[in-house]
């Protein structure tokens, strides 16, 4: 899928804008040019969102799609003939990732001593999002001084995220025991990264914490003329069916260890987080 991603992003901007991401952040489909999105972590107040968006913009471009049958959030594709085969390749990869997601969810259920299909039964649609990402080459100094950012620290708000990354690196995760301290997640050939999301944290009653992560200048990056190389990644965001009510699972709470979270509608939480990004 990386070869298709590179072919898509190598198109002229005018061609990519033939599949534009809508102005609303709640319709996460289509192409977003650099600077359109500003990721935030639990900011919902209008004034706070305005302050966040006034900071250095996230220097990245993206394309997003979901299942074709999603009437609530229809896909936005390039017109026929602009990049033949791209739509078919993206959808094929989407469904392959869904099969991997179910395997991971079954393993998690077994780990919690729950029925194997406990989490899978909440992920049937799937209400998921495939995102192709390109981080353009930028000056190392600008990244180190926060003049620009690739993506700021945030957690993913779904259940899990399956992340494919190229060889460039730059992904970092926060040490849960030392807030503010980030450690690199170097690319390992033939592997994927699985991030825990906010819903898995709620289901597990904080047994598994959602991962605060960001993208910075790769440590030991090969810098040419002061420029950090471009980076490609492909996250597959896995979320529960919108009709799901997420509540801590049996066995994760007791009289001595009460529930940390009230039941929450998956649809309401997802829409709130999406709207805060655009």
Automatic annotation (TrEMBL):
Start and end residues of each Fe2OG dioxygenase domain: 126-240
Similarity comment text for this entry: Belongs to the iron/ascorbate-dependent oxidoreductase family.
Source organism (scientific name): Lyophyllum shimeji
MF annotations from Gene Ontology: metal ion binding; oxidoreductase activity
Matches recorded under Gene3D superfamilies: B-lactam Antibiotic, Isopenicillin N Synthase, Chain
Keywords for the protein's UniProt record, in alphabetical order: Iron, Metal-binding, Oxidoreductase
Name of the protein in its database record: Clavaminate synthase-like protein
Family matches, as PROSITE patterns: FE2OG_OXY
Superkingdom per UniProt: Eukaryota
